[in-house]
Amino acid sequence: MEGKVRENAGNAVRAILETAGFEVQEVDAPIDFSAMREGEVLLVLCSNDPSEIGEFDRTKYCLKMENEELDCKKLLFTLDESVRADHCIRWGANEFVRYAGEAALARVLERTLSLSFAGAREEAGKTGEQETAPPSPSGIILPHLPIKVSRQAAEQIAGIQGSVSLRFMPHWFYQYESSGEQVYKDHRIPFDSQGSGAINAINGMRVAAEGADVTEDEIPAGSEVVKPHIPKEDASERIAKEVIEQLTQKVRIKQVKGDAIFYEEKVIKPDRKNIEIDIRQMYVPVWQVRGKKIVEVNAFSGEILSEPMDEGVEIL
Fold first, then answer.
1. CA-to-CA distance for 226 and 65, rounded, in angstroms?
2. How many CB atoms sit inside 10 A of residue 283's CB?
3. Cβ–Cβ < 8 Å for 142, 168
4. CB 90 within 8 A of CB 76
5. Cα→Cα distances 17→25, 43, 117, Å
6. pLDDT tens-digit profile of 128-166?
């Protein structure tokens, strides 16, 4: 990581830390810069050089401020996964992508990024990972939309502090295909159509489902799985009625009788037997933040829900 790449990496890490409230200052090489926030001092090195990383990892840094001496934490950003650094907080490509994305979102929302190094591992033999680890699996496998919004990001989006829980809300995802036609007098009305969508299996509300990439995998431990209130058969009939309403057409027929012109309007609907519906149950992950109020954030899209997805529902 030399030249322009190192410069770009340093600028990107600097932006993340500044979004988290750190004040950044230049320091002597080979360290790229220092960052300070409320008595917390962080030295940052962006490098793939094993010898440079080894020196940085072995060295203990302190900052003297008046009569106080502060131990400096060390943040290493490297793209070389093979290099060892047992006494640093280590960021690789995955950590960089995660924190850069969360920092970008925080800037959009004009909020401070919640980023803590208080629990970072720096003792010998440890990897220097951030204290925030991926949630452990629960052993429960559900078909669900992937979790793209982290717990930390959900709190920032919600804009309140409180207890946070991950809930999996049941939905009926469907695809339909309509065929057939109706003929009225000289008019032929085709009903060829196809589409997809989803409805909430608790309150029946329609939700956007276009481009949804459903995964069937273990959900995180401690998650709540909510039971559906709308049976599959009821959901299928509700969807069929909506499709029929959507495809229903009004036909206006002009007739001339002598000197008079008459118009006849006829409502033409598709036949239910010509509509095939493939329906299956999927779950949408939702972060629920309970503070002064309850805010729910879609863990797939990052959207704040205008109203709760449930209505006093039963938890499995």
1. 54
2. 22
3. yes
4. yes
5. 11, 11, 11
6. 333 344 455 556 888 998 888 888 888 888 888 788 899
Task: Please name which of 265, 271, 264 lies closest in space to residue 250, comparing C-alpha atoms.
Answer: 265
CB contact at 8 A, 283 and 228: no
Copy the structure tokens of residue 259: 């000197």
pLDDT band for position 284 (cuts 50, 70, 90): very high
Distance, in Å, from the CA atom of 83 to the CA atom of 54, rounded to the nearest integer, reads 9
Rounded CA gap, 242 and 127, in Å?
A: 55
**Distance from C-alpha of 274 to C-alpha of 278, rounded to nearest angstrom:** 13
Question: Which stretch of DSSP H or E encloses residue 207?
Answer: strand 206-207
Q: Which two tokens stand for residue 13?
A: 């890490």
Give per-residue pLDDT as tens, 42-55.
Answer: 999 999 998 999 99
Tokens read off for 107: 């800037």
Which one, of 79, 71, 78, lies nearest residue 122 by Cα? 71
42 with 17: CB under 8 angstroms?
A: yes
Q: Which helix (H) or strand (E) segment is 260 a member of?
A: strand 260-268
The values of phi and psi at residue 42, to 5°, are -130, 130
Give every CB contact of residue 143 below 8 A, 6+ residues apart in sequence: 214, 215, 216, 280, 281, 282, 283
141 vs 278: CA distance, rounded Å: 22
Helical residues (DSSP H) of the chain, grouped into ranges:
3-19, 50-58, 93-108, 151-158, 232-247
| Percentage of the chain modeled with pLDDT above 70 | 87
Query: Considering the chain, what is the average pLDDT of its residues?
Result: 83
At position 169, the amino acid (one-letter code) is M
Task: Return the structure tokens found at 155.
Answer: 């709190």
DSSP for 139-172, written as a single string = EEEEEE----S-HHHHHHHHT--SEEEEEEEEEE
Residue corresponding to tokens 């959901």: 235
